[in-house]
Amino acid sequence: MALHLLLLLLAASVVAADEEPFIGVNIGTDLSDMPHPTQVVALLKAQQIRHVRLYDADQAMLVALAKSGIQVVVTIPNEELLAIGQSNSTGANWVFHNVVAHYPATNITAICVGSEVLNTLPNAAKILVNALKYIHSALVASNLDRQIKVSTPLSSSIILDSFPPSQAFFNRSLNQVLVPMLEFLQSTDSYLMLNIYPYYDYMQSNGVIPLDYALFKPLPPNEEAVDSNTLLHYSNVFDAMVDAAYFAMAFLNYTNIPVVVTESGWPSKGDSNELDATVDNADTYNSNLIKHVLNKTGTPKHPGIAVSTYIYELYNEDTKVGPLSEKNWGLFDADGAPIYILHLTGSGAVLANDTTNQTYCIAKDGADPKMLQAALDWACGPGKVDCSPLLQGEPCYEPDNVIAHANFAFDTYFHKMGKSSDACDFKGVATISTSDPSHGSCLFPGSLGKNGTLGNITAPSMNSTIPDSSAYDVHSCEPRYRRLLMVMGFVMWVLVLL
Ligand SMILES: *[C@@H]1O[C@H](CO)[C@@H](O)[C@H](O)[C@H]1NC(C)=O
Ligand SMILES: *[C@@H]1O[C@H](CO)[C@@H](O)[C@H](O)[C@H]1NC(C)=O
Ligand SMILES: *[C@@H]1O[C@H](CO)[C@@H](O)[C@H](O)[C@H]1NC(C)=O
Ligand SMILES: *[C@@H]1O[C@H](CO)[C@@H](O)[C@H](O)[C@H]1NC(C)=O
Ligand SMILES: *[C@@H]1O[C@H](CO)[C@@H](O)[C@H](O)[C@H]1NC(C)=O
Ligand SMILES: *[C@@H]1O[C@H](CO)[C@@H](O)[C@H](O)[C@H]1NC(C)=O
Ligand SMILES: *[C@@H]1O[C@H](CO)[C@@H](O)[C@H](O)[C@H]1NC(C)=O
Ligand SMILES: *[C@@H]1O[C@H](CO)[C@@H](O)[C@H](O)[C@H]1NC(C)=O
Ligand SMILES: *[C@@H]1O[C@H](CO)[C@@H](O)[C@H](O)[C@H]1NC(C)=O
Ligand SMILES: *[C@@H]1O[C@H](CO)[C@@H](O)[C@H](O)[C@H]1NC(C)=O
């Protein structure tokens, strides 16, 4: 009993266990038709993504993320790093414009100082720790250093001999940078940011790493990798890499710095020499990764310790250069349609469900009723939505209120416009949702219905004559539509609102 307790205490003193793990998503922007920040945020909300990492500190994106309930990691792009690492005041300026100016409306929780700097910008290595310190001291000056962590994402390729994990160590030629960096992370209560790509480890292993081991698929016990020094069993590459990082840090005597995985994922398409970049493998990897992280399994070395992870990435980035796989790491295309449906049953509320592909456009929570009414008027008028199901005695009449009626009209418009994300805006009072608002015999467009048959709600034929839903004027309520509304039984609402 006493020994048990001691072991528990020891375990607790190593890496803090108080954090709940989360799944976040990286938002790369190399798309030829990058969605507008408000559409990005609508997608994040619809998919219940509550943690994101940006590769910069784009002002429009930070504004769109304000008051969204989404926690945001911003990044100092590598191009800006040299200047910051050489000047405390440049660092302070960066923090002022990109963090202080947005916080707390935008819940910025960490700053990535560069990205894989040691691999991609080796000449910045010597100023990297200065940059971390300058950014941190600017946060201290603004009294934000407890809320906002400072770190720098490392490529797992700087960890050598990573199997068995207990023998892993950081490339020694980087120790001059890594030792003061770890000292900084420890003294500021921050975490090691690590990018882990079992896809590349698998590809480069020439068959040594089984695909199933990379994809978190169960292996027969006799094929599980066992670390002969620790006798720990490894059932997937991801855990082995995280433990390799813990061991590499311990080798430099840092034993209490937690790990956050800033990137991990799997491409869904690749060139002819990238045969394992498939939709099935990407779906399997990401679905299993999410379940694994959220289950708070931890790793064999630190069971139960959260290893929060940001999936790479939200969108397929079609303008990325390199092999075809480079353009195909995304969970969604630019329209917000899923590339594949994650299998997450049982893993709780993240990235919606197995039903992610059913999307609906509904009124935003707390939207101003007057704005909703104007949008409803527009949809049933110039928007050419067939609003007859909303008439008294028709299936969608009840509940007879502006929110319920707006939901139906917005969703019908959205589907008739091919679910394009800008068809679900209505001056900001509409949002995309993944839960089916159908009720009773009122079947919403996009609903599979309770019988599993696709709802047959055909929109009036759509050619380019339909005005843009963002183009109407909230304050104009032309008599023609007012009369239409009265006919449709909205007279009460019109009277209340005028
Ligand atoms: C930011 O998110 C953290 C973690 O959920 C929460 O504790 C904090 O209150 C949030 N801050 C703001 C300003 O919303
Ligand atoms: C850097 O600037 C901060 C204010 O942003 C200040 O508190 C700190 O002392 C400065 N550090 C150095 C090394 O000059
Ligand atoms: C270790 O890092 C140095 C400097 O970045 C690099 O030249 C060398 O190739 C790395 N060694 C290994 C084994 O990756
Ligand atoms: C780690 O600590 C041990 C024991 O205190 C010491 O012998 C060793 O030199 C230290 N290693 C490093 C890299 O500081
Ligand atoms: C989740 O954790 C429990 C207990 O920690 C374990 O039995 C189960 O296999 C885990 N599930 C997954 C999917 O990792
Ligand atoms: C989502 O649904 C559309 C039709 O509504 C279909 O064309 C598409 O293939 C589906 N996507 C996935 C990933 O199943
Ligand atoms: C997933 O689906 C279940 C059952 O359909 C539902 O109760 C749950 O709220 C859904 N979760 C999310 C995140 O949408
Ligand atoms: C489901 O089937 C029942 C009986 O066949 C039918 O009355 C009902 O309209 C159907 N509902 C949907 C949503 O298709
Ligand atoms: C859907 O509606 C159209 C037009 O109202 C009709 O021609 C078609 O048969 C319907 N399809 C189904 C499956 O009910
Ligand atoms: C819509 O446009 C397509 C292609 O331009 C055309 O083939 C179709 O006939 C048009 N439909 C209507 C109803 O105008």
Describe the structure.
- 34% of the residues lie in helices and 11% in strands.
- The protein is an alpha/beta fold and 498 residues long.
- The chain has two domains: 10-327, TIM Barrel (Alpha-Beta Barrel), CATH 3.20.20; 360-497, no CATH class.
- The strands form four sheets. The protein has a nine-stranded parallel beta sheet. It has a two-stranded antiparallel ribbon with strand order 7-8. A two-stranded antiparallel ribbon has the order 10-11.
- Strand 7 and strand 8 form a beta hairpin.
- Helix 4 packs across helix 7, helix 7 (125-141) runs parallel beside helix 8 (175-187) and helix 13 (369-380) packs across helix 14.
- The chain is globular, with a radius of gyration of 26 Å.
- It starts with a helix and ends with a helix.
- Residues 1-13, 449-471 and 473-498 have low confidence and may be disordered.
- The structure holds 2-acetamido-2-deoxy-beta-D-glucopyranose (10 copies).
- Residues 122, 160, 171, 173-174 line the site of one 2-acetamido-2-deoxy-beta-D-glucopyranose.
- One 2-acetamido-2-deoxy-beta-D-glucopyranose (NAG) is lined by residues 252-253.
